[in-house]
Amino acid sequence: MKNNWHIYPLTRADQQQHIDFAEQLLNEAAPGDPATLYWSLAQPAGLVLGYSQKSESLNPQALAELALPVYRRRAGGTAVLVGPTLLSLDVVLPAGHPLLLSDIVASYRWFGEAWVAALQTFGVTTRTATPTEAHAQRDLRKQPQTAPYETLLNRACYGTLSPYEVVAGQRKVVGLDMIRRRSGSLLQAGVLLQWETETLARVLGHTIEEQELLRHGLYERAVGLETLAGRVIASEEVIAAFERVVIEEDQPHLAQHLSLRTEINDIY
Question: What is the pTM of this model?
């Protein structure tokens, strides 16, 4: 326990175990409980789909050849490749916690900003994507000339952008999603330690043409921390940097977020 944060050490296990444990933490959260951090790496590697993503979007032959298990999370979004190249964090905020806002989109803001501050530790400059940027990209899926390509890239979580996700330039480094219940909120982050597009291109592309578009398109949409830093950064280093930001240091962005909470609640 650190300053009202309950921290679980990094756990390496089957992805279903991670999904189930995060759900358990959320279901058992009670008002007044400390916020919880649960760090995880999937072992073995696998593919996680959003709750509404259809399995028909996958290439069954590629899945069989790669022997990739498929999981389904309760949050939205699309496919994520989990394994040694993706560090995951689940943050459980009990009902009534000061970082839990009534505005769902705004609730991501502190989380994204905390990751920006943490990655700066490694000399990596990132920023949070604005809601306007995310909406503009989403609108491309509605326009006839861009819809086919954008819809294809939308099969992968790191092929699209949501508000307050963390980007280097225009390339996503940290993806975010959320589950909300009466008991509280579960914020989830996936940090790309490394980024390779071959596997996702194979399992999400149904034709050679689709696979080629995904291979290059996903490379342009996301980037791994190792590439940005110019060296291998261990999961433990990332964990320590994030925990310093939200726990050991009184970061200004958290104070600003608490002020934002008051302003939004006054509006509602």
Answer: 0.91
